[in-house]
Amino acid sequence: MGFLQAIFLAGTATFAVPVIIHLIFKLRKRRVVFSSLLFIRESVLRETRRLRLRDLILLLLRAATCILIALAFARPYRVGQVLAGGNGEQRQAVVLVLDDSPSMNAQEGGFTRWQLAMQKAAALCEERKPGDRVALIFASDPGRAAVELSGNFGATVSELRRERALTRRGDLTQGLRSGMDLLADAREPVRRVVLIGDQQATQVDRGAWVDVARLAAVATHPVRIEVETPYADAGRAPERLRNIAVTDVRAKSDVWIENQPIRFGVRVENYSDGEAPNLAVRLVVNGKELAKRTLGLGPRGNTEIELEAVFPHAGEAAGYVEVAAHDALPDDDRRYFALRLRDSLAAVVSEDHFREQNTFLDESYFLRVALDPTPRGTDTTPLAGGHEEPSASYVRVLPVEGAKLSAETLKHADLLFLCGLTELPPASLAAVEAAVKNGLGLVIFMGRSEGRIGEAFYNGAFFKDGKGLLPARPGSQYEGNLAEGRYNGLDAFAADHPIFKVFTAPYDAELREVKFLRNYQMNEKDLHAGAPEHPAGKVLATFNDGSPFLVERPFGKGKVLLFPFLPRPNTDTDLPINLNFPALVHQVVRYLAGVEASSSRSLLIGQQIEPADLGLPAETPFRIETPPPQPEKKELTAGQACPVDRPGLYSGAYSEGTLSHNVFWAGNLDPKESDLISEDLAALRALFTSNQTEPSATAEEGVKIGQQSSEELKSQAPDWRYFLLAAVVCLLLEVIVRDFWEG
Prior knowledge:
Blueprint lengths: L1 E2 L12 H12 L13 H33 L2 E2 L14 E7 L8 E2 L2 E2 H14 L6 E6 L8 E4 L2 H9 L10 H12 L6 E7 L9 H13 L5 E5 L15 E8 L10 E9 L5 E10 L2 E10 L4 E8 L5 E9 L10 E8 L3 E6 L14 H7 L23 E5 L7 H4 L4 E5 L6 H12 L3 E5 L9 H5 L14 E6 L10 E4 L14 H5 L5 E5 L15 E6 L4 E8 L2 E6 L16 H13 L9 E3 L3 E2 L11 E5 L7 E5 L4 E2 L4 E9 L2 E10 L12 H13 L5 H17 L3 H22 L3
Parallel strand pairs: 3-6, 3-8, 8-9, 17-18, 17-19, 19-20, 20-26, 27-33
Antiparallel strand pairs: 1-2, 4-5, 6-7, 10-11, 11-14, 12-13, 12-15, 15-16, 21-23, 22-24, 24-25, 25-26, 28-31, 29-30, 29-32, 32-33
Helix pairs in contact: 1-2, 2-15, 3-4, 5-6, 6-13, 7-12
């Protein structure tokens, strides 16, 4: 036994005080006069023996009280048993960090990883001894403890066995940090954080874990971090389970055209090491299968396919795409989508000047007619606000002179056509560049019915050494002669490209018969010029002489298409009076409208639905119904948010005046959860053991930390309380013996 305040041991000498007092009273004698001693001799002898025994007991009790009080002030502790539990072992504070991400739903050996992890966590709780404490943190909510540090192990086990929906991707690093925070004020000498999970490779952040290990090593009270897997055979090599997943579904256009299909891009991935043949992929809306395709994937392969579905009307559309995989993780075999199909889109058509009369002489006249073949007057339908006249086409055309193009004009546009321009003012050019960077589709028809284009503008501000909007600079101009039989024709084109998919044999014959009398040559090397942030372009079709007929180049989020001719009959080409011209123009429209458009309707678990994104006032009443199996109706306002906590379709409803509106959102798992490969357990453990054993502070700091820890453990020893309690008992016995002793 040791003493924290050994100087107080000198106080044990105070036991001499009652001894001295006892001796003083023993030496003092009094003379008592009695008339006769005959009858008291025997009684005096008996009384003397009784008093001597009582005085001896009082002396011992008083001396013991002095010694016990002195020992209590000296703060005794027992070496090796400072904070031991009832069984003599050191007490432990253990924080269990449990990975409850979707990958833990994977089937393995007849059980899910989650079931095996719960069994291991429960076993760790049952191994705890009286005096230990346990806490529980789930990776899906790493900022707080589901169960605080407590000796009630049953509460922890009950929380483990509670049914949980494993849908939200967890943060294991934050879970480890929260576990260390819980242990910062723990009094137990042994402090442990035990992480139990499948150690999915896409979840492990080695750099962050090394930082956590270093913090655990240099903490005032060092924490031991342990990494476990759900499996009994923890030393086995990582195994790649068979898993096929639909990781992406997106509509390539959000414009509804009667009897025309909406194309969906679907990405399917094989995360296993084996072949995956004959996979049936189907698109389902309202319980009805609208499209189906069978494909095969090689080991760890992936592919992107297209599924086309015809929707009966514009408006809200929602459904899912699923693959019949029969694999280890069924949760990612289905992916939901939600979008709003518009019944029209806005196209701005721009040239230098529009005529008040004889509009058929405008450079863009035949282009405007192809876009919207309605009578004169409806082609000026405003893009936003104001009265909208009916249109026979799903394309609403707004003619705007080049000098009047502005950010406000292009704000509500889906497409921009530049036809026969000679130049653009700097402000208009800047507005166009900004709009295309943000996703606006741009189509350029390069040519003039009279004279030549402004080559200084095209080669300069429009091209900008490959950094501008123009995919390629104009070169020499081809001049044909119909009377002499000299003209260009369409030669090769990318038949698999969305623009030309409808022009396959026998429908390509008429397109190839079109005659081009005048067109600009283009230098294909320009398609590869420019800075890294401007990707290279490509030629989609060529003329008979090998020069480009149509080129494409990305620009920010948008795309630019360039035709090196003017769509005017007699002067340049007879294409505008060919029946295939409207088809070609509308294929361009459908390709650019909505391509690569991001949808706020498709969310991942853990994100939030924001009804305010619909443009509604914040106070608008809004009702959201969550998906099965336990649908729930939530009444809120448009200014509030609703969390997406499980996969499925979330439906919303609100009213504007007398009209009721419905809207959908799709909730899906994070695609990273589909890769079930685990990190090597030995390597992960080495991250913590190596950093916990390596000296990250100086030796002097390490000794100081150890001394501080040792002194605190000694100060927490409870033995002084026992000595003080014994002293109080001695005092009580002294009072009883002194006042109630009868011999």
